[in-house]
Amino acid sequence: MSKINIIILSASLMALGAFSIDTILPSISYLKNDFNFLPQNSHWIITSVFLGIAIGQLVFGPVSDRIGRKKTAIVGLIIFSIGCILSIISKDYFLFLITRFLQGLGSGAAVVVSRAMARDFFEGRKLAQIMSLVTTIFILVPVFAPSIGQIIISISNWKIIFVFMLFLSIILKLFILFKYLEAGKIRDDLRFNSTLRGFVEVFNSKTSRTYTITAGLIFGILVSFLNIAQPLFQEFLMVGKSFALYFGLGALSVGIGAIINARIVTIIKPQKIVLIALYLTAIWSIFFYSLIFFNLKINVINVMIFLIPVFFLFGLLFGNMNALALTPMGHIAGTASAVIGTTSIAIAIPIGSIIAHYYRGPIDMFVQLIIIISLINILLVRKIRY
Asked: Which of 85, 214, 271, 342 has minimal Cβ neighbours within 10 Å of its Cβ?
């Protein structure tokens, strides 16, 4: 299988969940009107998908090691498609959240296959480079997805968003059926103890354990931003329909960081890149928070001036952290990918939910979160000896 096909397929599978999350963001106010739920419960629209992704990875990681990446991906895409169809006909908010969970469950299978597929074909710095390229394509989804959602709700109903996602899942199923070839012989048994063994192996490896935890903490910042983005931009900063533009600029900066990382990771160790990016994130966030402390007037311009460098640095972090966590686990790539992904989400969801529940103002709490997590991650990463 060609390198370009692996990159495209890995990125597309990983992007499926992002499409499910980011395309719906501009329509949250419409969902509130249709389902009549309290504002503090709106985060479940996002959280339910992440819960599905976490469980989906845990279930389908060992499955992919047993029946192969191709069959696992197809099963996941079928579940995702069912979730989209049920979302269209949902009449109740709780039932709608169940359909979102199903979309996440299917996306979880896609994500775990995406990472395992990359590990099947590549390792070491090459794996870090491929993961950065995959992340670059993946990050383009949040750049365009909210705009797609905004266009759809401008000319039609929010339910058409799920018709669009259903169409994407069908295209992806066809691509996998006709283009993807397995890397080699399937190696593991489909038993619960294989998953348990995967957890033990990941957490017995200091490298895998550390980068799984740090990736989860950074992902917690991203989940927090997803939960507060709509009220931040549309309610506090009053950008209206330009929300998709500002959201996309932040996502684009992550993509640029990932592109640059794909180039420099071949000459600089990914561990070193991670540490430098964490230091810069902490320094920049502390500086910006000091301005807020001294009564900086918050507006969309200075918020973007802060967010764009932070998200750029995240582009240096995501691909490297996942690659470093997965590198020692080549012999159980599917199961290890599931464990790493599930653990990262399990760390991130409570962080994002707490921030969403207590969010009352433009950006103060979010900046504090970035400072705290950056400093914790620096301490964790520095304990690893290279």
From this structure: 85
Predicted confidence at residue 295, as pLDDT, reads 87
Half-sphere exposure of 305 (CA within 13 A, CB side): 10
The whole-model pTM stands at 0.77
- The structure tokens 């995406």 sit at 114
* Residue 301, C-beta contacts closer than 8 angstroms, at least 6 positions apart: none
pLDDT at 106: 94
Q: What is the largest CA-CA distance in the chain?
A: 61
The interaxial angle of helices 300-326 and 243-264, nearest 10 deg, is 40
Q: Which of 337, 373, 336 is CA-nearest to residue 352?
A: 373
Task: Supply the pLDDT for residue 102.
Answer: 96
pLDDT digits (tens, 9 = 90+) for 309-328: 999 999 889 878 888 887 77
Instruction: State the Cα–Cα distance between residues 74 and 61, nearest whole angstrom.
Output: 14
Query: 3-state DSSP: the chain helix, strand, coil percent, rounded to 5?
Result: 85, 0, 15
Return the CATH number of 3-178+188-382, one of 1.20.1250.20, 3.10.20.340, 3.30.360.10, 3.40.50.1010: 1.20.1250.20
Angle between helices 300-326 and 206-230 (to 10 degrees): 150
Could you read off the pLDDT of 67-82 as tens digits, one per residue? 888 889 999 999 999 9
DSSP codes of every residue in 251-263: HHHHHHHHHHHHH
Angle, helices 192-204/333-358, rounded to nearest 10 degrees = 70
pLDDT surpasses 60 at 362: yes
Print the SS3 string covering 288-300. Answer: HHHHHHCCCCCCH
In the structure encoding, which two tokens stand for residue 286, read together?
């502390």
Q: What is the DSSP letter of 196?
A: H
Residue 3: in which H helix or E strand, if any?
Answer: helix 3-22
Q: pLDDT tens across 96-153, in order?
A: 999 999 999 999 888 888 877 776 777 666 776 676 667 666 667 777 888 888 899 8
Q: Is 385 left (phi over 0), alpha (psi -120 to 50) or beta?
A: beta
Question: Amino acid letter at 42?
Answer: S
Structure tokens at 297: 């007037």
Q: Name the DSSP letter for residue 237.
A: S
Residue 381's alpha-carbon distances to 41, 202, 207, 279, 352, in angstroms, are 35, 16, 9, 11, 22
